[in-house]
Amino acid sequence: MDKFISILRGINVSGQKSIKMTDLKTLYESKGAQNVTTYIQSGNVIFNHTLKDPDQIKNQIEQAIETQYNFSVHVDVRNALEFCKVLEELPFKEFDPEQDGTKILITFLDQNPDKALKEKLLDYVKEPEKLIFGNRAIYLHCPNGYGKTKLSNLFIENKLKTKATTRNLKSVMKLVELSRL
């Protein structure tokens, strides 16, 4: 049985798209997930599944949420090893997790965007911000805070024409840690 990590986009933000984590755990279990662990209220889930295809699991979870809650949620599902590799490939080597953990972010992309779209997005990066593309991921460093950058999740989705969800470094590190238990 493979281990997976999923991150849901835009739930429990400002009272929108509310899902209790206990209910989310039950929903995952109803779709065949086992050893389900949630982390904080923003829809981070670590689980085992007999299915091998992350896209098949993603589709099941998205459909179940829409059926149960009457709203759509983008779900990014990755094999735990793939998720961990995204963290291992973090291009920012000199950082303090305590100080920089919320200023370094990873945006998980549904697909690798077209080269021309990537180049256009780079035009919006303003010093001292940094944006580096990875495999189905974007690494952001926003020293002045994520709330002050133009490079929001929605902005990135619109410019790259793909679904995305963003987590700060502290959350990604914790998900990797929990996936190894």
What do these coordinates show?
This protein has 7 helices and 8 strands. It is α+β, with helices and mostly antiparallel strands and 181 residues long. It folds into 2 domains: 2-83, Alpha-Beta Plaits; 86-169, Alpha-Beta Plaits. Strands 2-3-1-4 form a 4-stranded antiparallel beta sheet, sandwiched between helices.
CATH class of the largest domain: Alpha Beta
- Helical segment count: 7
Low-confidence stretches: none
Assign the structural class, choosing from mainly alpha, mainly beta, alpha/beta, alpha+beta, or little secondary structure.
Answer: alpha+beta
CATH topology of the largest domain: Alpha-Beta Plaits
Percent of residues in beta strands? 15-25%
Q: Return the average pLDDT rounded to an integer.
A: 96
The CATH architecture assignment of the largest domain turns out to be 2-Layer Sandwich
Q: In sequence order, what are the helices and strands, one letter per element? A: EHEEHEHHEHEEHEH
Based on CA inertia axes, which overall geometry fits? globular
End-to-end distance: 15 Å
Biggest β-sheet: strands ordered side by side in the sheet: 2-3-1-4
Q: Would you count the extended β strands for me?
A: 8
Radius of gyration computed on alpha carbons: 16 Å
Write the layout of secondary structure elements.
Elements lengths: L1 E7 L12 H10 L3 E6 L4 E6 L4 H16 L5 E5 H9 L8 H4 L3 E6 L5 H8 L7 E5 L2 E5 L11 H8 L3 E5 H11 L2
Helix pairs in contact: 3-7
